[in-house]
Fold this sequence. Notes:
Blueprint: H1 2-17, H2 22-33, H3 38-44, H4 51-79, H5 105-119, E1 123-124, E2 130-132, H6 133-136, E3 168-170, H7 176-185, E4 189-198, E5 210-220, H8 225-240, E6 246-250, E7 256-265, E8 282-291, H9 293-298, E9 307-314, H10 315-323, H11 336-339
Parallel strand pairs: 1-4
Antiparallel strand pairs: 2-3, 4-5, 5-9, 6-7, 7-8, 8-9
Helix pairs in contact: 1-3, 1-4, 5-8, 5-10
Bound molecules: adenosine-5'-[phenylalaninyl-phosphate].
Amino acid sequence: xxxxxxxxxxxxxxxxxxxxxxxxxxxxxxxxxxxxxxxxxxxxxxxxxxxxxxxxxxxxxxxxxxxxxxxxxxxxxxxxxxxxxxxxxxxxxxxxxxxxxxxxxxxxxxxxxxxxxxxxxxxxxxxxxxxxxxxxxxxxxxxxxxxxxxxxxxxxxxxxxxxxxxxxxxxxxxxxxxxxxxxxxxxxxxxxxxxxxxxxxxxxxxxxxxxxxxxxxxxxxxxxxxxxxxxxxxxxxxxxxxxxxxxxxxxxxxxxxxxxxxxxxxxxxxxxxxxxxxxxxxxxxxxxxxxxxxxxxxxxxxxxxxxxxxxxxxxxxxxxxxxxxxxxxxxxxxxxxxxxxx
Length: 342
Ligand code: FA5
């Protein structure tokens, strides 16, 4: 009987080596291990043995049964594309796609802007988002009780100085970097400082409470409005790669004199009016001006020797116009359907 069991085992293992599909595997399983299968029938004969012979053949039969079942499981796993415990990998299976991250549209345009400004000799700076009242307003020619503070709705942090005044704010604009840069690097100076700013704002298609700006500053001898307009044109042409209609109007900011506003024709509606441009056809994008002498002094730069211009690009709005995004609220929404388009 021992020989018979060994013979059946050999036949089963040989047959399993040739299995090509699950249907055939199931047939074999039935043929050998089913109720009327060859191996099952052979085991039944064990009952006719007695004593030592029954013990000996019984233990061999158990061993063979385990081997056969193991081989059946392995064969089934291979056919179903699973790996066995030894780490078998079927290299012919198609690979699994690994999701890759990508850059946010703001970062993409920021890199383009950095390329444009690098060519004009500007360096890139960073400033703190939690800013002192001094750098955010005071050093920009906006004293504590000046009504110009109301132009920017501000998130104050619950922290007061010895005079009992709130002295820490989430920066409302990137302009504090102007004075920080002058104090650190002196004149002459060319820099841009992109970054996040915060305002207690009523939200709509073109206003967010958290958005990006990019400050620009150039200080040297004999800098004039001509230099400012030339740099602004370079910026607009570089980003849009085509002619975009612009208009310049006077603007008021306590830290520049004179101040201007450069608007671009809305690229979403082409100027006919839509929610992104508050139905005016124009988008306020680039306020700028000649740095006020008081601000130069706060930065330790002599206004009798140096002059300079500064601008505060509405960065998030520029990205909207660049990609034709009709609603600013998409940027902070975290909605992958939006983000995955870039
Ligand atoms: C300023 O923040 C000045 N610091 C800009 C400046 C710098 C002027 C240097 C002169 C010299 P304003 O508050 O206008 O200015 O904001 C600048 C730009 O930010 C706007 O033109 C607009 O494009 C964008 N902006 C303003 N508020 C919002 C908002 N709530 N959501 C999205 N973009 C905004």
